Amino acid sequence: MEKGGAMVVLDTTFIIHFLRNGKNAVEKSRSLPGPVCTTRINVFEVLIGIYSQKAERQGVALETFNAFLGSLNVLELDATSADEAARISAELNKKGQTVHASDILIAAIALANKEDAILTQNVKDFSRIGALKVETY
Amino acid sequence: MARAIMVSDHVYGELTELKKEGDSYTKVIDRLIHAQAKKDILQFAGAWKDLNKKDLDLIEKEAVQARKTPWRKVERW
Hints:
Chain A is of the alpha/beta class and 137 residues long. Chain A contains seven helices and five strands. In chain A, helix 7 (123-129) links the parallel strand 4 (117-119) and strand 5. The longest helix of chain A has 16 residues, at 79-94. Chain B has 77 residues and is mostly helical. Chain B starts with 8 loop residues before the first helix and ends in a 9-residue tail after the last helix. The relative contact order of chain B is 0.06. The interface between A and B is large, with 47 and 41 residues.
């Protein structure tokens, strides 16, 4: 890691592909330099997926996802990251660019926590936000 | 109770760089300790591999859809 303690932020699709045993995601995870993290927004998105299943089929997925969350840091949306998100959003609006609100919140949380990079398949949208390094798999 | 410790200029600089608004050095060090203590995620690689493919496809589809349409219209209240 370039900065002591800075981590890679895992995006929603990476988490799902990793848990599904997706070859690229698992291979990429082996090359990550240290502890990783995700944001509460990503947790929210994965949970929407899990709760979209019939109630009787949610158990195992939910249990393993919660155990997985215990192995990484979950960054929260706080006052600093909300302020950062608002700035990013306003800057993009001025340029006439639109990026999904969740992308902006995730990037802002990562930047406010001085994390290294976002690991995602959504390179196009995150690259528009700037400042944050974008990695894919 | 607070204790004073000595760190090199280099470490002091790195800690300062990691400070967020309102952070103390204690908070930064505490965060680093807990980050390092987290387990390796690799033990969870493929943790869902034995689940039904249709269920997993639905999880992925709905999670991706949540990103694309964050403000869903409420059809009924």
